Amino acid sequence: MQSRRPAPLNVVPGDPEGTTWALPEGAIARLGKGIVLSGAGPKLALPPGGVYFAVQTRIGLWWYEMSSKSPIALWETERGLIASADFSPDGEWIAIANWDGILKVMGVRSGECIAQMKRMEEQNIYARVVFSPDRKWIATANQDGNVEVLDIHQGECIAQMDRGKRDTESNDVSHLEFSPDSKFLAATVHNPKLYSVHDGKLINPDTEGTQTYVWHPETGEAIIKFAGSKFVFSPDSRLIACACPDETLSKTEAADSIYNFISVWEIATGERFAYLTEHSKWGHRIVFSPCGLFLASSASRGEDGEEKILRVWELRKDVQKMVYTDSGKSSKEPFYSPEGVLLAAVDRQDTIEIWNMERREKLHTIELHPKSIDAKWFKKFPHSAITDKKTEVGNIHTSSTLREFACYPDPVLFLPDGETLATKGYRTGIVLWDVVRKQSRETLLKNTRISSFTVLPCGKMLAANVQDENVTVWDAEKPDEPIAEFTETEQAQLIWKTAFAPIGERLAVGSREGTIYLYDFKRNEKLKPLTGHTDFVWSVSFSPDGKRLVSSSSDETSRLWDTASGEQIATFPLDEPRTFMKVAFSPCGGIIATGMFGELRLWCAETLTTLLEIPQPQTQKPYALAFSPCGKYFASGTWWRREEGMAKMTIRLWDVATGEEITTFWGHPTDVQSLAFSPDNTLLASGSHDCTILLWDLKPFIDV
Fold first, then answer.
1. What's this model's pTM, rounded to 2 decimal places?
2. pLDDT at 557 over 80
């Protein structure tokens, strides 16, 4: 079965990489394609046939051609923030759920909306969606862990699944699937331990741990429930198998244990059909044979877990039929061919090997980058490697990886040449972008987690990471030689809110309890901490000469400090307790801009008197601030709030002298977290929680 080619929505001729696809008005480029959403759900929507696939991101749904790994369409950018997606079994439709709680069913070839559903009484995000095999229903799981079944043709909810009484709710559904005959719906729910965000205390100490439910999809009635995960239905929908804990363990021990045994249940009777205890380590995959008479599973064995083992059971006789072992760290992913031949995809990190396990014969070796889209494809759907009844493997092109989704633009900083932009990598490193060519150029500190970094006037970049009680500072060009390392006591509770002094010798690190820790990393010295705040430090910012620092805290005070003496200079005079979400000094250091709920304010940096108050819409929080290098302008960006719906976030350009709004850009679907002007004032870069950077042309609006 071949995949239907998706409608080429938002494609711009002459731009094969999608840098200018679906750009908002005023933007000239988008750097990055938006982060693939985190969480337990699948990130790639994979249709039958494997010719095309769709990637869920925070800016929309990107379509890719499997063979070339090139983007061929970009859907749903008007909403962005894709939460989940799934293809109908025939590949004709795709269901797309968004953070606005709306679920759309769209025709793949037409791009038109076939059905749209929203649970009005449930203002919640669908974290998972899955089609029934007969294409009548869609099962959903929202962020509260509630599972529902929606009728596609009627456009309404027909059942909410009964999970029993729960004192706390969370997004804990990791696997949701209909049985092959559509008569049952199963889900794995984790019932995780939840802790208070205020005092860290355990809210639900009596959690029962990971459970798998099987329900009637039309009534929501629970048929069977048992401890287990990684479930799979038999082809005839009669049985369900899952990884489960050792029954000899206590309830508490079982909830915290590794599920290395296998239970097989008969759904109609609710009775356990088999209990397979031969595996001693974590199981990787469970699969039924096409006839339903055999079950194969893979796991580790031995104290170090390096020996991999694959077992096959004959279920009617409840006996182990075959055992296959392999030394080495490579995992096996068993699967059956349509003719019932047991195969396995063996992950060798840089390659995936397809084996006929019954003949112990290697059929093919596929060269892969370990983080490539192909690697994700084969690990999830190893049977896609089969191209004919002889179980041969087709040629796969594997040049592309998911690097294009890997930036986290907070902060965004221009280098002095004005042609290079620096951002944090999504998890590690500092990504350098070529502004002229509109593409990534290189990554510094590739394997290093970064909390913050800065670009000095000479172009040198410094980076810091805060991990537990440890603070490390690097020259970004020298990953193996930290400039300085500091360790605090456990009571310090350091956080990622950090700032470098512009002169390049000091670092300020916020904490949960309110203390701000200062370090002179050139001299490798701890300086006197700044004490006065009593709660989480929201922002820290040095003046251009590094002699002063502004901080803001959840204790609803903001303070100005002398960094040399470690003493407080003053508290910002406010008419009521408020928290500055963001702070920025003007280039000359004479003005401080602050963003608060519903207001921007400019202050005299010497006297802390108010120069300008600029009211903001009450639904918006100014979260990003930046002055232009010439000091005549400043920009502000807002923070996403669910109350605003799916409206794009605003980026506003202001005149410093008058406080007048010069223009407004509407671009990112979620938080604008960082802003930066180019050295010549002609470009504004905005970095967002969607993990893209938009470049805005300022020449029509300001004097340059």
1. 0.86
2. yes
| Model pLDDT for residues 76-126, shown as the tens digit of each residue | 998 788 888 999 999 999 999 988 888 999 999 999 999 998 865 555 788
DSSP-derived 3-state class of residue 373: helix
CA atoms within 13 A on the CB side of 282: 8
CA proximity to 408, closest of 453, 441, 467: 453
Run of H or E residues at 523: none
Per residue in 3-20, pLDDT tens? 578 999 999 999 999 999
Strand pairing category for 319-326 and 307-314: antiparallel
What own/partner pairs with CB < 8 Å and gap ≥ 24 does 522-529 have? 522/483, 522/484, 524/484, 526/486, 527/563, 527/566, 528/565, 528/566, 529/566
Query: Taking 70 as the threshold, does the pLDDT of residue 618 lie above it?
Result: no
**Diameter over CA atoms, the chain:** 85
Cα angle 137, 138, 142; round to 5 = 145
- The answer to whether residues 259 and 244 touch, using CB atoms and an 8 Å cutoff, is yes
How far is residue 273's CA from residue 167's CA, in Å, rounded to a whole number? 32
Q: How far apart are CA 506 and CA 566, in angstroms?
A: 13
Which of 371, 373, 368 is closest to 348 using CA atoms? 368
Q: Collapse the DSSP code of 382 into the 3-class scheme (helix H, G, I; strand E, B; otherwise coil) and give the result.
A: helix
Distances (CA, A) of 75 to 78, 216, 334: 8, 34, 34
Q: For residue 92, give the nearest of 126, 151, 52, 55 by alpha carbon.
A: 52
Residue 297 has pLDDT above 50, yes or no: yes
Q: What tokens does 79 get?
A: 């909403």
| SS3 call for 254 | helix
160 touches 213 (CB < 8 A): no
Task: Report whether 559 contacts 574 (CB < 8 A).
Answer: no
Q: How confident is the model at residue 389 (pLDDT cuts 50, 70, 90)?
A: very low
